[in-house]
Specification:
With 254 residues, the protein is of the alpha/beta class. It has a single domain, classed as 4-Layer Sandwich (Purple Acid Phosphatase, chain A, domain 2), CATH 3.60.21.10. The chain contains 6 helices and 13 strands. Strands 4-5-6-7-9-8 form a 6-stranded mixed sheet, with helices on one face. A 5-stranded mixed sheet has the order 3-2-1-12-13, with no helix packed on it. It starts with a strand and ends with a strand. One of its GO terms (molecular function) is 2',3'-cyclic-nucleotide 3'-phosphodiesterase activity.
């Protein structure tokens, strides 16, 4: 089985580069299952109902998110009816699901969304949340984790703590793809951050001038999604059909 996991899709340029490439990615790489992080989909923050359906029409099985998921209040109106749109499981008592189990190609695939505790919005302990999740002893063959967090150290530490329990661990949130993809000692496929799918010559998706103005002056300016050439960033993970263990993880940047 091959799984495609795509990093934070940022605004219209991110959606366009995803739509342009998804069918060829699936065909050329024989992809069986697609996960995208959609928390920046709509104008850079959160995801409208229209854009939820955009993903469903473009071969996406599960949409993960992060700290911006509820910045668009429209999400509150529909997230309880869309179990394949996830919010971080440890995000207090907010609506929606933190994980989902989908059966595909005779495999039960669990996708779990978590948010880090360091330099992020307040949330429950990610370790306690993970341990509570594991204590449920749910029935699945493959466990994919999107860990939405700020620091590389927190992502690496968490992944190593659950190495061999998680099939594949991918970090999101920083919007910068890391070059440390590998199989951890006990078999978990890992990358610190998938990177952003959006305009590369920007400041993590927003117009550079807006970010520079704020950094130079300390004054607030409304951030606008950047325009220009975009890239799609993510990974392809191959999983052994018999053992359900990760065989390989390969970065993509298109």
């Amino acid at each position: 089985m091959k799984v495609l996991m795509v990093g934070d899709i940022f605004a219209k340029p991110g959606r366009e580069v995803f739509k342009k490439n998804i069918e060829s990615l699936i065909k050329d790489n024989q992809i069986d299952f697609v996960v995208v992080n959609g928390e920046n989909t709509t104008h850079g923050k959160s995801i409208s109902k229209e854009h939820y359906y955009f993903y469903k029409e473009n071969h996406v099985d599960v949409i993960t998110s992060g700290n911006h998921i509820f910045k668009n209040t429209e999400v509150l109106e529909y997230i309880n009816q869309t179990p394949d749109l996830l919010k971080p499981l440890n995000m207090y008592k907010t609506p929606g699901n933190g994980y989902v189990i989908i059966e595909k190609n005779n495999k039960k695939i669990c996708v779990l969304n978590l948010m880090g505790n360091n330099f992020m919005d307040p949330s429950n302990s990610v370790y306690e949340t993970m341990d509570e999740f594991l204590s449920l002893k749910l029935s699945y063959d493959i466990l994919l984790v999107d860990f939405h967090a700020e620091t590389t150290a927190e992502k690496i530490a968490f992944a190593l703590n659950y190495d061999g329990i998680i099939t594949a661990f991918v970090g999101t949130h920083t919007h910068v793809q890391t070059a440390d993809e590998r199989i951890l000692p006990n078999g978990t496929a890992f990358i610190t951050d998938l990177g952003m799918s959006g305009v590369i010559d920007s400041v993590i998706g927003i117009e550079a001038a807006d970010a520079i103005y704020k950094q130079k002056t300390g004054l607030v300016r409304r951030f606008q999604p950047a325009k220009g050439k975009a890239k799609l960033n993510g990974v392809i993970i191959q999983i052994d059909e018999k053992s359900n263990k990760a065989i390989s993880i390969k970065r993509i940047s298109i």
